[in-house]
Amino acid sequence: KEVIVDYTQCANAAGDDCSKVIESYVDGFPNKCTCDLEIAAEDIGDVDWEGQVFLYYGLTNFYQNHRRYVKSRDDKQLFGDLSSTNEDCNPFLRNNASQIYAPSGAIANSFFNDSIVLQYQSADKWVDVKVTGRGIAWETDKQYKFKNPVEDGSPAALQKAFEDAGTVKPMDWQKNIWDLDKTDPANNGFLNEDLIVWMRTAALPNFRKLYRKLVKEGEFETGLPSTNKYRLHIEYNYKVVQFSGTKSVIMSTTSLLGGKNPFLGIAYIVVGCICFLMGVIFLFIHLRFGRTTQEMMNIGPRSQYNSN
Questions:
Q1: 262: preceding bond cis by omega (within 30 degrees)
Q2: DSSP letter string over 288-305?
Q3: CA 245/CA 60 separation, integer angstroms
Q4: Is residue 201 within 8 Å of residue 107, measured between CB atoms?
């Protein structure tokens, strides 16, 4: 099962388009804008969503596969070496005061920073569905590619380490690296799983990335009940209109074959059609210009196959 909710043009309680609200700045930061989008009952369906439920965010027309963008990162810094500099990260390497950005580079600077909360209606109020941001990143990335500069991953220890190294947050970030996750103090710094997921660049301009997983407890122990009414509460921060992109939230389950993804099926059909067409072309060439097996066996000195 899968539900896709586009919220590019979502409006706040006053009816203002959030994509326009955040274009104005106050004290150097974009205006805050939140919007609520109810999920239609027919999209949820009449059958419970059993098993693990995943929340993704999707972006379109965002070319994470651009060569300069892909190179604009400092892997030594991401593995805890705050003294490392990579000139490929320019112009997202230093600020005007020559302080190093941490993390540096275009990939980190464009970090997705919308806040998405799934809620369900209980009596007359909306209650947050419990989800987790743990376990969304690849274990190999967490083990071999990302590491905090200090073993103590508490926000206070991370703040001291980054400030002592003279680093500053990227120019377009609204939060400090040690304060990315206020609900889980251990999920901060370079080991923040949202950051790790974002740093693994997408191969295509239209992509989705894992955002949260449903915590299976209470009435959600077996999945997502279809009898509830759901909505998305979104803190709108990320700009996409400027590059003609869109944003969406995808709620999905998986099967033994994985999640819903039409790409592989479409690819098989296209390749199959190409192979069939080539087969027809070669069959026509063979029937029109080919020779029988007997003719091939009777090739002699005077045969047209002899170049002399």
A1: no
A2: HH---HHHHHT--TTSTT
A3: 5
A4: yes
Q: What is the pTM of this model?
A: 0.80
Pairing of the two strands 34-38 and 131-132: unpaired
Which positions ≥6 away from 295 have C-beta within 8 Å? none
End-to-end Cα, the chain, rounded Å: 69
Rounded CA-CA distance 180/211 in Å is 14
Q: Report the residue count for the chain.
A: 308
Per-residue pLDDT at 308 exceeds 50: no
Is the distance from CB of 118 to CB of 128 less than 8 angstroms? yes
Which tens digit of pLDDT belongs to each residue from 184-195? 888 999 999 999
Of the candidates 233, 244, 202, 258, the one whose C-alpha atom is nearest the C-alpha of residue 54 is 258
Q: Tell me the two tokens of residue 19.
A: 């994509």
Q: Give me 84's structure tokens.
A: 């490392």
pLDDT at 283 over 90: yes
Residue that has been written with the tokens 């122990």 in this structure: 221
Residue 162 phi/psi, 5° resolution?
A: -70, -40
Residue 294's pLDDT band (cuts 50, 70, 90): confident
Phi, psi dihedral angles at 214 (to 5 degrees):
-65, 135
Q: What is the dihedral of CA 197, 51, 60, 188, to 10 degrees?
A: -20
User: 49-91: per-residue pLDDT in tens?
Assistant: 888 899 999 999 999 999 999 999 999 999 999 988 999 999 9
Q: Are 170 and 108 in contact (CB under 8 A)?
A: yes
How far, in Å, CA of 72 to CA of 157, rounded? Answer: 27
